[in-house]
Design brief:
The complex is a heterodimer of chains A (358) and B (426).
Chain A lengths: L12 H4 L6 H21 L2 H27 L7 H18 L5 H20 L7 H21 L12 E2 L3 E3 L2 E4 L5 H24 L1 H11 L1 H6 L4 H28 L1 E2 L1 H4 L2 H14 L4 H25 L4 H22 L3 H15 L5
Antiparallel strand pairs in A: 1-4, 2-3
Helix pairs in contact in A: 2-7, 3-7, 3-10, 3-12, 3-13, 4-5, 4-6, 4-10, 5-10, 7-8, 7-10, 8-10, 12-13, 12-15, 13-14, 13-15
Chain B lengths: L1 H18 L3 E2 L2 E3 L6 H22 L7 E2 L2 E3 L4 H12 L11 H14 L3 E2 L17 E2 L5 H15 L8 E7 L2 H4 L2 H11 L2 E7 L7 H10 L3 E5 L3 H12 L7 E3 L6 H4 L10 E4 L7 H11 L14 H24 L6 H9 L2 E2 L1 H6 L9 E2 L12 E6 L4 E4 L8 H19 L7
Helix pairs in contact in B: 2-11, 2-12, 3-4, 5-7, 12-13
Chain lengths: 358, 426
């Protein structure tokens, strides 16, 4: 009824090719942003920030990063945890080596270092594909975690091998270290998530994104029509790793404040983020957010429901929660193999015809 | 719908009513995952002692204790979530039983002003109360433990370890790496050769590590393990016929469930313990007032085991600190700041432990503003596989303060400089 193109006239090509051509979509997008920036920071408390919003936003950034590589460029990667570790450790080294450098630049620096490391580990993708590439990136995962455990320079020779984030501020407000306000922690992650998601959406709509998708769909055909596979694959690795590196830096500096590489950035993290994009939807920015929300929020929700409201024992809840989340993943994938993003797309198609479906 | 909602609303009211007048001791436990074997008995002991206080003594100073449990699975992210979920409830003290989670919580508790007690784990330099106002790790920490092991080995070897080879087999995490600086300092002082062999978490696979041990033939293997890693290490040591009495675990690698899977092969394995394990009179009270009434946190089968006793010991120290705080302030309904003061003035004497029905469970110690670390003493115990019992070999051994004090000073000074903390207590 109200969700349709009819009557929404576009008078320029620019208008016609915008991200949200349908008015209702556009206003919904602005409304979400307005709530996220203008309402949530005023009502958020420590629990909502540390248990829900901050991890959700950080995982969403990591999922967008991995989605660029796997969903848009078709290069399967299991090295996400290792790349997040690179971002975290690079950020830590920058924070401690240059105490006066603004934390935003440390985080961006962490992303850039990760992009370089990602390109390095992306080189084999020029020769190998599919599962073989997955194994090569798996090697990156184990090598990087081993490296950060083995070489004390990376953790500044601390006794425990942990890295912990010193206090840093943005515009005079602390965002890392002790005494951080929940809303400050939330806002810095939100700014990064929104800017990066916006950039990713526009990258994937442009030349670079189209060359990635061409490589994904059929690399030989892409090469014949003039897409340079070296450039396409390595830019995908670089951009993807940049995102994942930023997620790792935020994960360490803003969310946890102290990490231990084997525990925080192990192989489970790589799988978790891969599951996020599979459930959310490959090749979709919205899917990255949806997948992150599904895998971060659902366990917390179930836990609060089962322990908090129903008063179940905690161990039983932990086991049941695994079963429920597992069953839901299988259920969702059987019902819709293309993930939550596809469900959303179908929903929108139906909404366009509503209330007169043919 | 209304009929269903009514009892629910009533339940919420009932739960919320007395909540305001409770003393809250959150239990960040782990009953799932590769570390559950250690987490379950510890949590059972911790909760059962508070239940005993409520059932037998009518609470602590007349106020009931409440222990909300939250499952962390030894995972730092879940640990942070549990902390945030429970701290608003009036939490008096946190004991997460995880070095990784401790590192996350240290900056948070310093900001939120809730005491954190990491008994025999966590950040060792938190023993320096001048820098760490809200963190306590009495009665002992990892560096004490490392020093006690070396002291014990010195005594066994006629007072010298010159030229001996000692291997540290450690969980490759913050927990396992903690003793390394102390062992390195001690190796310089006493002239033994130290080899470090990490085991990646969780540690089900240790073939290559034990191959290396078999090749290098160290005189002693010291283990900093936890969870499934301990059982595997002891089995592997048995497989390569490593002499069990030359294999010493720390206090987190010396419980019944660590040695029983290897059967008779584990006979003679040694481990540290920071609390003695005998059949204390308090266990009888726990059986009568808690287990028999069906109020036990677990199934009651763990009562009296090593880690159950330690969990109970942890709860006892918290209760005694709360009582100290109640005496100091004259109010029964203490808050977290009062609890901290109580912990800082805690005195554990032999008479007190005897009165509580657990004579000699731990060493005597006092906590002060500058010293949050206690005496650091530990015993060495040995597994008797025939009787399925841990046999204490020594009395409480004091650590080498000469080596540890400067290390603690240096590490806490680095933390203070990084975080801009001005030392207190002067």
């Amino acid at each position: 009824m109200f969700y349709r193109e009819a009557g929404d006239f576009k008078t320029s090509y620019r208008d016609d090719s915008q991200t949200f051509p349908i008015g209702f979509d556009r206003y919904r997008y602005y409304a979400v942003l307005a709530v996220a920036f203008a309402v949530v920071p005023f009502v958020i408390d420590d629990y909502w920030a540390s248990a829900i919003f901050v991890p959700f936003l950080i995982y969403a950034i990591a999922a967008i990063g991995l989605n660029i590589l796997v969903g848009y460029c078709g290069q399967l990667s299991l090295g996400t945890g290792g790349f997040m570790a690179v971002g975290a450790y690079a950020c830590y080294k920058l924070m401690t080596a240059f105490p006066d450098l603004n934390i935003v630049f440390c985080i961006l620096g962490g992303g850039l270092v990760t992009a370089a490391v990602g390109v390095l580990f992306g080189l084999p993708s020029l020769r190998i594909k599919g599962f073989y590439l997955a194994v090569a990136t798996l090697a990156a995962q184990f090598f990087l975690v081993w490296l950060f455990n083995k070489v004390p320079w990376f953790y500044n020779y601390s006794a425990s091998g942990q890295i912990s984030a010193p206090a840093r501020t943005v515009f005079g407000l602390p965002v890392t270290g002790p005494g951080v306000e929940a809303w400050a922690q939330y806002l810095i992650c939100l700014v990064f998530a929104v800017v990066l998601a916006w950039a990713a959406r526009n990258l994937t709509r442009g030349t670079v994104g189209r060359s990635w998708m061409a490589i994904r769909d059929m690399d030989i055909a892409a090469e014949i029509i003039g897409v340079n596979p070296l450039k396409a694959k390595l830019t995908a690795f670089a951009v993807s790793s940049f995102y994942i590196g930023i997620a790792g830096a935020l994960f360490f500096a803003v969310y946890l404040g102290a990490v231990e590489v084997g525990e925080a950035f192990g192989i489970q993290k790589s799988f978790l983020i891969l599951f996020m994009i599979i459930i959310g939807g490959l090749g979709s920015i919205f899917g990255s957010f949806a997948g992150a929300a599904f895998l971060v929020l659902l366990p917390v929700l179930l836990k609060n429901l089962l322990v908090g409201t129903l008063g179940w024992p905690t161990d039983l809840t932990a086991h049941v929660q695994l079963m429920i989340v597992g069953a839901l993943i299988i259920g969702f994938l059987i019902a819709e193999p293309h993930g939550l993003a596809q469900l959303w797309r179908i929903g929108k198609e139906k909404l366009r015809l509503w209330p007169f479906p043919h | 719908m209304t009929t269903r909602l009514a009892p629910l609303a009533l339940g919420v009211l009932l739960a919320a009513g007395p909540a305001a007048a409770d003393l809250v001791f959150p239990d960040l436990s782990y009953r799932t995952g590769p570390f559950a074997a250690g987490g379950i008995p510890f949590s059972d002991g911790y909760q059962d002692y508070f239940t005993l206080m409520n059932e037998r003594d009518g609470g602590i100073g007349g106020v009931k204790a409440r222990v909300p449990e939250c499952e962390t699975a030894y995972n730092t992210e879940k640990g942070v979530e549990c902390y945030e979920a429970t701290k608003g409830d009036g939490a008096l003290i946190y004991q997460p039983l995880s070095t990784g989670i401790t590192y996350q919580l240290i900056p948070k508790v310093e900001a939120d002003h809730i005491p954190l007690h990491t008994m025999g784990y966590g950040r060792t330099s938190a023993a320096n109360g001048k820098v760490f106002e809200w963190v306590f790790n009495y009665p002992a920490n990892y560096w004490d433990g490392a020093s006690v092991v070396i002291k014990y080995l010195m005594d066994e070897n006629g007072g010298s370890l010159e030229g001996k080879k000692i291997t540290l087999l450690y969980h490759n995490s913050a927990y396992g790496k903690e003793p390394i600086p102390t062992l390195e300092a001690l190796s310089k002082k006493h002239g033994f050769k130290l080899t470090l062999i990490p085991v990646d978490s969780p540690g089900q696979e240790q073939k290559s590590q034990w191959l290396q041990i078999r090749r290098e033939r160290p005189d002693f293997v010291v283990m900093w393990g936890w969870g499934v890693m301990n059982q595997v290490a002891i089995q592997e040591a048995a497989n390569i016929n490593f002499p069990m009495d030359h294999f010493i675990g720390n206090w987190w690698a010396g419980a019944e469930h660590d040695v029983t899977p290897a059967g008779m092969a584990a006979d003679g394995y040694k481990a540290l313990n920071m609390n003695r394990v005998v059949d204390y009179p308090v266990f009888a009270d726990i059986r009568t007032h808690v287990v028999d009434k069906g109020l036990a946190a677990g199934d009651g089968s763990n009562v009296g085991s090593v880690l159950y006793t330690r969990g109970m010991y942890a709860a006892m120290l918290a209760v005694e600190a709360a009582k100290t705080a109640q005496e100091m302030t004259g109010t029964a309904q203490i808050d977290a700041a009062m609890m901290r003061d109580g912990m800082e003035h805690l005195e554990m004497t032999a008479a007190k432990m005897e009165a509580l029905g657990m004579p000699g469970i731990g060493p005597e110690f006092t906590v002060s503003c500058a010293d949050h670390g206690g005496s650091g003493m530990a015993i060495v115990q040995q597994w008797n596989a025939g009787d399925r019992k841990w046999v204490p070999l020594t009395d409480f051994i004091a650590p080498d303060a000469e080596v540890i004090a400067p290390l603690i000073e240096a590490d806490s000074a680095a933390f203070a400089a990084e975080n801009g903390i001005a030392p207190r207590c002067d």
